[in-house]
Amino acid sequence: MNKADIGLIGLAVMGENLAKNIESRGFSVAVYNREPQKVKAFLQRNGGKSFLGASSLQELVGQLKTPRKIMMMIRAGKPVDDVIAQLIPLLSPGDIIIDGGNSHFPDTIRRTKTVEDAGLLYIGTGVSGGEEGALKGPSIMPGGSPKAWPHVKPIFQAIAAKVAGDVPCCDWVGADGAGHFVKMVHNGIEYGDMQLICEAYQLMKTYLGMTADEMHEVFATWNDGVLDSYLIEITRDILAYKDEDGSPIVENILDTAGQKGTGKWTSVAALDEGVPLTLISEAVYARCLSAIKDERVAASKILNGPSPAGKFTGDKAAFIEDIKQALFASKIISYAQGYALLRAAAASYEWNLDFGGIAMLWRGGCIIRSTFLADIKQAFDENPALENLMLAPFFTKALGAAQDGWRRVCAAAMTHGVPVPAFTSALAYYDGYRSARLPANLLQAQRDYFGAHTYERMDAPRGQFFHTNWTGEGGDTAATMYLV
Q1: What is the reported pLDDT for 2?
Q2: For the chain, how big is the Rg over CA atoms in Å?
Q3: Measured between alpha carbons, how far is residue 191 from residues 261, 270, 416 in Å?
Q4: How much is the pLDDT for 47?
Q5: N-to-C CA span, the chain
Q6: Is residue 334 classed as helix, strand or coil in its secondary structure?
Q7: How far is CA 432 from CA 278, 389, 393, 407, 428, in A?
Q8: Main-chain phi, psi angles of 221, to 5 degrees
Q9: Are residues 124 and 140 in contact, defined by beta-carbon separation less than 8 angstroms?
Q10: Which residues pair with 60 in a beta bridge?
Q11: According to the model, what pLDDT value does residue 261 have?
Q12: Is 190 an annotated catalytic residue?
């Protein structure tokens, strides 16, 4: 019996499309699903191709070449742990289990150890690009057991999206949970990008009074410049799409956004690392606020504020250019914060992340793909130890050129009651980061006043702490110094 190059578990849309992608690149694939009828239907739809069907995990394992490579495309969480537990007794030393779902990176760290302790190898890989990417070429971000990479590299790089020079958007990221961490940050940046675009749309719609067709033209123009990206491209197309009655379909969609948790995970990871991921967190909170639709409708009848409609009387074309600058500058901030989190996590988990290389993984196939990423690659090529993306010459210059329009947009939005939390938090981060002195001196005094938490002094070496008896009654005893 001919044996397959790789096994795939899970035949939902992502699993099915990935299996078809792998087979189309010249590899044979054994497929299994816990519902046997899905395997049967898949084989019927794809007759005459290099697929084998399995009715059990044991049969799947028996259909594979050694070392066996089995990729799970199943729901994150307990189902992954359950399948791993079933596979381990069936496999031999050196066999490889791969999780291609959106698993939380701490789970991948734990699973890597569990699988390696059993004498096997493990890969947790981010796969970005949705249904189309899975079929035609996704961005793939693998991490886990380094010894597994040479065995899966030919398959993964063959099926990944390709950019200029036929370079695959797939390379080894790092040990244990590194691949899923990078995918998580990708999704966090995706949250930020989408929210920024929505705020640009909201300003044009409610403040400038533009129609969907007019906005379509603006986004079409923007997609030919520095904002050229997949998300700008699809926004252009969405704004032109008409419902059955000829009205823009986007205006008939309920304004409550869903989320699957990766944006939240990114914000929580940033809190754990002490990284100010303000823009991406605001994007997560914006989705939460959108979800309380009934409360917002009720509040709109009670809470007063300026009405943005009909308020604009200036140069519309100039203000649209300002919105473009605000969008571009805020996008830089989103990536700067995402990369700051990657840098902090690399130190915490001892991952040797290639920051410029990660930008290349995102150049094609994934949701945040854009020409902008080449500038990030160049920034890290020029300075691998770059502390913050804003400090790279290209981005420093871009932020300087954009900030006048950015500030005008934020000021107008706040004056006229248009909520733009991502634009404004991005600007606040920029202003905070460029401030040599922030008011945290007063904050430290407050902490020392009510809790004797101590403070450092401007005229003393760093690491030397002081306490003041602010009331004359508190004494000289200070609290133990610790940071969380």
Answers
A1: 87
A2: 26
A3: 11, 15, 25
A4: 83
A5: 58
A6: helix
A7: 11, 15, 19, 14, 6
A8: -65, -45
A9: no
A10: none
A11: 77
A12: yes
**Active site annotation includes 321:** no
The whole-number pLDDT of residue 482 equals 53
Which residues, other chains included, contact 84 with Cβ-Cβ below 8 Å and sequence gap of 6+?
97, 111, 114, 115
- Contact status, residue 403 vs residue 317, Cβ threshold 8 Å: no
In the set 23, 38, 69, 190, the catalytic residue is 190
Catalytic, out of 183, 205, 264, 324: 183
Low-confidence ranges of the chain (pLDDT < 70): 1, 309-310, 479-484
DSSP strands (E only) in 3-42: 6-9, 29-32
The C-alpha torsion from 267 through 269 and 275 to 276, rounded to 10°, is 10
**Residues counted in the chain:** 484
379 to 244, 359, 372, 373, 394: CA distances (angstroms): 47, 10, 11, 10, 8
**How far apart are the C-alpha atoms of 318 and 321, rounded to whole Å?**
5
Residues 368/193, Cβ–Cβ less than 8 Å = yes
Residue 222: C-alpha distances to residues 200, 215, 226, 229, 324 (Å): 12, 10, 7, 9, 8
- The vertex-222 CA angle with 217 and 228, nearest 5°, equals 130
Helix-then-strand count for the chain, H and E: 19, 10
Whole-model pTM: value is: 0.94
| Euclidean distance between CA atoms 73 and 208, whole angstroms | 45
**Spatial distance between the Cα atoms of 302 and 295, rounded to a whole number of angstroms:** 11
Q: What is the pLDDT of residue 483?
A: 60
For residue 139, which of 361, 449, 389 has the smallest C-alpha distance?
361
